[in-house]
Amino acid sequence: MSFQLNARSYTISDLAKEFDVTTRTLRFYEQQGILNPVRQGQARIYSPKDRVRLMLTLRGKRLGFSLAESKELFDLYDSTAGGDEKQLRTMLDILAKKQADMQQQLRDIQRLQEELELAEARCRDALARLHTS
């Protein structure tokens, strides 16, 4: 099948530049089943769907989604039998887990901050005692 590059398709360099990622990253996402470019010889030709998937994958990554979680959502979306409801329920489950994880991280950060403040206060007290001796 011959595929011509047009205004609604992208080369690996186009997407790498647009999203500030390496071509190696795009090839890795292809290996993971996130992207599915058409091959024309050695060249990869990406569709608008691939571009959207890349954008959503990178956004998900910033929000703490793993590639496996992103792929699971894409696969659910692509399936025809009840994909929408199942995708939404899965998304809600993932979001709830992410929120719980973030709450735990926030508690951990607050605890660490308190410990650092206590250590700082002890150091300042010790330093003050050295200067008054």
Automatic annotation (TrEMBL):
Gene3D superfamilies: 1.10.1660.10. The lineage of its organism: Bacteria, Pseudomonadati, Pseudomonadota, Gammaproteobacteria, Oceanospirillales. Residues 92-129 form a coiled coil. GO terms for molecular function: DNA binding. It comes from the Bacteria. This is MerR family DNA-binding transcriptional regulator. Keywords: Coiled coil, DNA-binding. It holds the Pfam family MerR_1. Residues 9-76 form the HTH merR-type domain. The keyword Coiled coil applies. The keyword DNA-binding applies.
